[in-house]
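Q: What does the assembled structure look like for these inputs?
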Amino acid sequence: MAIKYMDKYPKNVALRGWILKPFLTTFKNMIKTTIHRPVTIMYPYEKEWIPDNYRGRPGLVFEKCVGCGICERMCPTTCIELVEVEDEALGKVKRPQVNVGRCMMCGYCAEYCPVEAMTVTPDYELAGYTREDLIYDPYQLKWENTTIGMEVHLEEHLPSNLAKGVTDKPTAFYEVDRPKLIGEKCISCNRCAKTCPVDAIEMIVVGENAKGKPIKHPKIDDSKCVFCEQCIVICPKDALEINEVL
Amino acid sequence: MSFSDWVNISDPLANPNSPYGVTENIPYSVGSGLWEIIGGILAWIINMIVPGNRLSPWLISDAVTNALGLVLMVVVFFAVIFIVNLTMIWIERKVLGRIMDRRATRIGPLGYLQCLADGLKTFLKEHIMPDKADKKGYMWAVSIVIGSAVLIAGMIPLSPRWFLADYGTGLLIVFGIFAVSPFMILVAGWAQNNKYSLIGGMRAAAQMISYEIPMLLVFVSVVLMAGSLNINDIVQFQMDNTWFIIPQFIGFVVFMVAAVAEAERIPFDLPEAEAELVEGWQTEYGGMKWGLIMLSDYFRGYVACALGVIMFLGGWALPFMDELVIPEIVFLLKVILLFFIMVWARGTFGRIRTDQILNIGWKVLLPLAVLNLFIVVLLKMGGVF
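A:
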């Protein structure tokens, strides 16, 4: 019987330890996992260490946010919506509200936030009892232990700059997109200045019309502008347009 | 009369009704001592309520102490085996977990109380019986499977001073009752009226009957070498000469393989092949019936290991020592060592096919067992033992 068995299997199992070899393997594994603990993590009781920039649900630093709406426009799944909230300290402000049931945790909102108010958080236990539970209003989006590591910075460079080897973040007006005024269309309505979330627009008198009233044109402060396009969207006569530099 | 007149612990060996005579028996001593405390307190309370009654002296008389001491002795004996079994289940789960690189048990210190928690869970389940099952066969077969497992576990002495009965037929009757359960498993598989349990029962019967034969041949060679069926005599013979694992190493290996098959453990767990048959012959048994079947599996595993220890590893004796040192603990440690090897094999091997199992049983183990018997006969005739 045994000889037949060895004829059948040319790799001679008897010479390779036969059943003793698997015994040895499992014994080694047992010793190893007894000394160093098994790889299993008892999930609800123990949790894996997660880094600060773990792509959990979006978080919001309420005070930093300017309500520019870039996150709303940027969101691939359109789960972010700007809502007006009545804050005790800040008054009536616009802040993002996130439907985490639809959120795919890509972190684009945190990446594109100009003031780093949107962050990613390590919070991934998001189950709720109803679909309404999953819509997080701006106050629910707050995350107490927000660290600097949870901010996601956008590294945006011009291809021409990269070719030159310049890696500093572009800030000059001719390097980033900015709204541009087409002067003859402007009707001095002041709406862009009112809507600008960072007060970058100032109305400047550029002349007088036939009735002697001043003609005001918006002047954009490049150091403040975050290019949120709200002024472009709100302009009734399409007098503002995007000046794309890329 | 005061409290100390009722509750006083006397020497159990002096009890004229004791079935053990003057032989020291620790469970009996513990049992009768327990009754002397419990019955003494009862008698004291009854005597306080009704002074001068005849019930109180009767409760602490020799005859009643002996009778209820025997009952408590069985409880003590069973409790020890039960705790050993819980430890074995714990060892199995822990070792398997470590071998498979995963966590094993969690409840209690080091996860020791996990199987108690599982037992409580199964205890709370509903009693369910299939509509078309054969009611009598369904209940009686499984009762006999469980009962025979517990019975043979109670028949194994832990030491010359820790036993229920010292009987001359010894190992023979243990093996006889060990062989009862395959038939009852077949009956249980048939009675459930379920194809999985029927196939499992058939497989159990085929496998167990074919592995009985090499096992009994090994048993015969051990008995032949020791010249006695009595367990004490076999162990005493090994203490006087040498452990039987040295002259009968082939027999030891054959016995262990056959014992794993008899206890329906991986790699010979075809009757309960979880991947093919749902739960094998136990498919339709739910709740506490299932829990007791599991427990009886471990009792059978314990008995198989204990028989291996008694027959080959010198029972409760330590090597190179003539006197016994805490023999019960030594015996149980040896049992747990053998059980660890069974668990190790379970973690190492996959399940073996039916035809391979029968081939191994009839074509490998049976010739090896006969060879072992032949060696023993030669040794006996040569006058070595």
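The interface with chain A takes residues 95, 97-99, 101-103, 106, 344-345, 347-349, 363-364 of chain B (CB under 8 Å).
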